[in-house]
Amino acid sequence: MLLFALGFLLIILQPSTGQFPRVCANVQSLLSKECCPPWDGDGSPCGELSNRGSCQSILLSQAPLGPQFPFSGVDDREDWPSVFYNRTCRCEGNFMGFSCGECKFGFSGLNCTERQVKTRRNIFQLTASEKNKFLAYLNLAKNIPSQDYVIATGTYAQMNNGSNPMFRDINVYDLFVWMHYYASRDTLLGGSNVWRDIDFAHEAPGFLPWHRVFLLMWERQIQRITGDENFTIPYWDWRDAEDCEVCNDEYMGGRHPTNPNLLSPASIFSSWQVICTRSEEYNSQQALCSATGEGPIRRNPGNNDKSRTPRLPSSADVEFCLSLTQYESGPMDKMANYSFRNTLEGFADPQTAISNPAQSGLHNALHIYMNGSMSQVQGSANDPIFVLHHAFVDSIFERWLRRHRPMLEVYPAANAPIGHNRENYMVPFIPLYRNGEFFKPSRELGYDYEYLQEPALQSFQDFLTPYLQQARQIWVWLVGAAVFGGIVTAVLTGLIMACRKKKGGTSSEIQPLLIESEDYNNITYQSNF
After folding, report:
1. pTM of the model
2. 20-452: which CATH topology?
3. How high is the mean pLDDT of the chain?
């Protein structure tokens, strides 16, 4: 009965976010370069008859890119998604989706007008039934085919420029593994040549917004396939952990009794097959990952290279990272110094913020520490610990946004590595999302973190913190201004008193320094430093 109900839900639920929409993975759509499917509600492209959206030409950013990728016209991901489609649905208001059939993150209801904020919780704060439900949802996603999306098994050139589509079905969980692979894979240059210094999801400003979108999409997929609209991703707070606290059969799988590189047979994850882990094989064949099984999940936590990652991150590491005021700096890649993004990502020392790619801190440290499937970038999402880890990384990003309250302009508009400028569309998401759209507080996107929901007093203190920090930096000028203001006030007071003594009989109508109280309330004073 449960399986029947789940199957029924798969049929009636609206499409969700992902990679290539199934309805656009055909010769007609590829040759016309148009992906504007009809919305089921009224049968019109993009729900135009219901004012949900319309089919529009894609507006690509013309901002210059950084020097890291010295090619043009050799990678399908350049100016995403224009190689495949140059017309897609542009949704109005709070509508979203490849056919404008969904609500934007943070909205719900028939017309997407109802605000909602859901809470992501610490996995160790879940009840036994909540935790077991989460594990069951993961396993369900691994075993249910995606109804709305397919993956590309060849490049656009290998598809004969669209006349020979190369796509295949994939299960819901592996769809996200494949998207993570596709965003971070090497560029195929022909023959046996590849370009490795390219990544649309890492090592640059888009790292945090990209994974924020990735988790929101993943969360929504789980909500849809299960019918549990209240589901949220739990997080693992790994600060000061002495070992992998979630690496046991009660949670994410313990160690195999005879092979320390594998998971315990008692874990449901021991039967999972990984995909997209053989990057060198794909490169030598000039091929894309086809999402076929490549063996079990591998994990041997703590038996990693200690010279690279001596320990798991500490609370002090996180607090230092949060103190950094610059989101991005310098070359805006893994060599950036004093960059919050680069320090949180783990390419800069969490005690100095100086770039050191030979060491792995914070985010990177967890990946290296797991010493297995999670330690290889392209295939790291195969291990379900990935979502717990990145949910906590996202919470640190959220803390930084709340503490420093940056304007959108803080996110680089130009000269970032390819795909990472503010107005670039994120690879490989359809519908389209720009990097800058997710450089804002999580509550505006419909979610919060349990441990960030502080009491009112603490929230007020958090609100004042950035202003107090600024005041400390200019306290000398503030004192000087106060002294100067006191002197000016004293002089003016003396002049007024002198005038009063001279013109004691002058009526109030002609006294120039007296004003009506209601006029006084309309005067605004400004001080600029």
Report:
1. 0.84
2. di-copper center containing domain from catechol oxidase (1.10.1280)
3. 88
